[in-house]
Structures are given as C-alpha cells and as structure tokens.
C-alpha cells in the first residue's frame, strides 16, 4: 500500500518536454497544472518530496480538512507549492520564508494562483524566532492551520523553529507537518515538539522515510 500511494504522489510531478531557459517542474494538484520555478543552488528553492506528500493529503482529504475560507500560514514555504495548493483549495494563505527566497516564492505563487483562487495568497518574510510579535502579533494574527514541509533537517535554527510554532499556534490551530527523517536531530526535535503539542501521525511512507503529522496545543487535540 505504501508503494502504491507513493507512486500516486510522485506521479503528480512532471517535467518540461523541452529544456527551458529557466529550470522548472510541473505538478498536478487541485485540478490545476502547477509550474514551479526552482533554483538548484539553494535548499529553499527546490521542491522536496515532503511537500508533495502534504499537497496530496490536502487534496485527497479536502472534506475532512476543508480549507475553504480558512486562514493558513506556511512556514519555510520555499518554492510555494504547498501554499499554492492550499490557495487553490480555497484557503486564505500567507506563504513565508527567508528574505532571499521571497522573490522566487512570490513569482511562483502569483504565476499559479492569479485569477484561479477565491483568496489571493500573500507572501511575507518570516525568519524563525526573529521579530515574531512585531510581524505576527498574537493579538491580531490567528491562523486555522500552520503548514510545514521539510523544515526539520540539519540546521542550527531548530530552537527558533520551535519558538515560531509556539508563537503562531493558538489553542484551536491545527499544524500539518510533513517531515523526512534523516538523522537523529529529527527524532530529538519531535521529542521536544511534543512537550508543547499533542502529535498524531496521519500518514507514514517508509519507502520515502517521510511521516505526515497533525498537531495541536497540548491537551487540545480534536477528534
């Protein structure tokens, strides 16, 4: 079953027939052909398989996870694929990442959502752990969903990432987080994450070494 679903997920990706002057990949999600411009010299400008897993979940669980008119923030949006799919499914999306990635992120989001979405998504800078209250004040920022794909890997900002999850998450916020396990750091982060949040594994794909989690604030997990 794992291999069958993984084949379906990876089958949503396609490549251009001809070599273009800009590197791009194509994807089929939410009834649309999505073209993503990439940059191979930067981790944040490449579509990783965890993003496909999360997009597939959003599309195939659109009744249980109805995004229409919901406020969604994606942290570490990278190329923007997850934000684009959430927007096409009716959410009001804020796609965030580091300042050096915003140009490509904004290009992809605009190219794939303009005049196609109920709510036009916005792109905003978010450096984990920095100026959180200034840029995303607790009193006025409320998100129904926080989405993240492959934000946990070998980097020195895991403390700041956990702080960002904590700042953005209200009692009724749902976190959807897809993660590829590579090193022991990932397991340690999951343990620390669970001190603040109730965590439920929604899907597991051993052949990709990727798990998809749903989380809410400790003690607030809904059925």
TrEMBL record:
Keywords: Methyltransferase, S-adenosyl-L-methionine, Transferase. GO terms for molecular function: methyltransferase activity. GO terms for biological process: methylation. It comes from the Eukaryota. SUPFAM superfamilies: S-adenosyl-L-methionine-dependent methyltransferases (SSF53335). The keyword Transferase applies. CDD domains: AdoMet_MTases. This is MT21E methyltransferase. The gene is Mettl21e.
């Amino acid at each position: 079953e794992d291999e069958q679903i993984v084949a379906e997920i990876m089958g949503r990706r396609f490549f251009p027939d001809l070599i273009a002057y800009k590197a791009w990949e194509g994807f089929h999600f939410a009834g649309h052909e999505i073209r993503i411009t990439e940059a191979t010299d930067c981790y944040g400008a490449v579509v990783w398989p965890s993003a496909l897993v999360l997009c597939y979940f959003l599309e195939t669980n659109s009744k249980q996870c109805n995004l229409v008119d919901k406020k969604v923030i994606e942290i570490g949006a990278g190329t923007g694929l997850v934000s684009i799919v959430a927007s096409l499914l009716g959410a009001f999306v804020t796609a965030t990442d580091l300042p050096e990635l915003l140009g490509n992120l904004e290009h992809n989001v605009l190219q794939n959502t303009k005049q196609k979405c109920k709510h036009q998504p916005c792109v905003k800078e978010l450096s984990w752990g920095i100026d959180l209250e200034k840029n995303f004040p607790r009193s006025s920022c409320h998100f129904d969903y926080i989405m993240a794909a492959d934000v946990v890997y070998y980097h020195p900002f895991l403390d700041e990432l956990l702080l960002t999850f904590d700042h953005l998450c209200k009692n009724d916020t749902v976190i959807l987080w897809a993660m590829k396990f590579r090193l022991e750091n990932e397991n340690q982060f999951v343990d620390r994450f669970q001190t603040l949040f109730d965590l439920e594994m929604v899907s597991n794909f051993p052949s990709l070494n990727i798990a998809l989690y749903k989380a809410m604030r400790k003690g607030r997990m809904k059925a």
